[in-house]
Specification:
This protein is α+β, with helices and mostly antiparallel strands. 21% of the residues lie in helices and 27% in strands. The radius of gyration is 22 Å and the shape is globular.
Length: 320
């Protein structure tokens, strides 16, 4: 084996018989995205029976066929390490749990080239980051929106990245969000089981779609407290799709207060302006998982963010 190259072995299961090679391997090796697997195939880093290169991502695979994926050393990170203060809820040699403030982007992207959580982690974790995604960078296995506050876990080692990715894939991660929504939900508790995909009308937005379009998404909600024409709601995520809580609550007719994408106007517009509240009222309040290396059960809670607490307090006073 070439120095610095890690090899992952995978055998096609009966359930994946007849599937595309890239799709099957991505299902068997969840720490690698399908696009990453496809890139490895096209680069000649995947071999099948007899050590023969498997160069076609669309190859239909057979059950019990073994493949070997050679993972090259991670390329240097493109993002720059920046000394940015982090609120760290937990850290060890394998992972770090961060309580992210609203307004901080997770990944550098167009319009947000720096000042992100990744920039901060590159500085904080210098030389101790997962490279299994193909780039030496923090192992971001899930995200929360820029203007959502609260907890997320980041892998520092490849072992942690792989283990966390598996837990997210099988939906065993415990995630609870607090949201302040418009109106009083009726019934006060329930489950939204609706597929989510890109909106046909606006590709920058997500929307509830018919079954088979987008990705299956399940949110369990319950009202914690009725407020002035609003409610504090706890949302438990069974899946983790882009904008899931925001889209599902809007679908119920109770969009999040302050949400610039899925809520317009409403009876609280003047109050939001008065408080300077310019984001969706959403906080990732609880995160629980099994430590992927030590098998310890970890569970973290984050108090509601200050600006949301202020909004909640004003709505309580108005209700009374």
């Amino acid at each position: 084996m070439t120095e610095g190259v890690a090899t992952i072995s995978a055998e096609i299961t009966p359930a994946l018989h007849g599937a595309r090679l890239d799709r099957a391997l991505a299902a068997l090796v969840p720490e690698l995205s399908r696009e990453r697997v496809k890139a490895l195939i096209l680069a000649g880093h995947v071999r099948g029976p007899g050590g023969q290169p498997a160069s076609d991502p669309a190859l239909k695979v057979k059950a019990q066929t073994a493949f070997a994926l050679a993972i090259p050393p991670a390329a240097p990170a493109e993002a720059v390490a920046q000394e940015i203060a982090l609120n760290i809820a937990y850290e060890d040699a394998h992972l770090i749990v961060v309580d992210k403030p609203a307004g901080m982007v997770v990944h550098p992207a167009a319009g947000n080239p720096d000042g992100t959580l990744v920039n901060a982690l590159l500085y904080h974790c210098a030389g101790q980051l997962s490279g299994i995604g193909g780039v030496a960078r923090p192992g971001i296995v899930h995200r929360i929106d820029k203007d959502t506050s609260g907890l997320l876990v980041v892998a520092k080692s490849d072992a942690a990245h792989e283990g966390l990715a598996r837990q997210f894939k099988d939906h065993s991660i415990e995630r609870r969000y607090l949201a302040i929504v418009n109106g009083i939900p009726v019934p006060p508790a329930g489950t939204v089981d609706q597929w989510i995909g890109r909106s046909d009308a606006d590709r920058k937005k997500m929307a509830v779609q018919r079954e088979g379009r987008g990705k299956h998404a399940v949110t369990h909600y319950r009202m914690l407290e009725a407020l002035d024409r609003a409610a504090l709601v706890e949302c438990r995520l069974e899946t983790g799709r882009t904008h899931q809580v925001r889209v599902h609550m809007a679908h119920l007719g109770h969009p999040l207060l302050g949400d610039p994408t899925y809520a317009r106007g409403g009876p609280h517009k003047a109050l939001l302006a008065e408080l300077g509240f310019r984001r969706q009222a959403l906080h990732a309040a609880l995160l629980g998982f099994i430590h992927p290396v030590t098998s310890q059960t970890l569970r973290f809670e984050s108090p509601i963010a200050g600006d949301m607490q202020q909004l909640f307090s004003h709505l309580c006073v108005l209700e009374k």
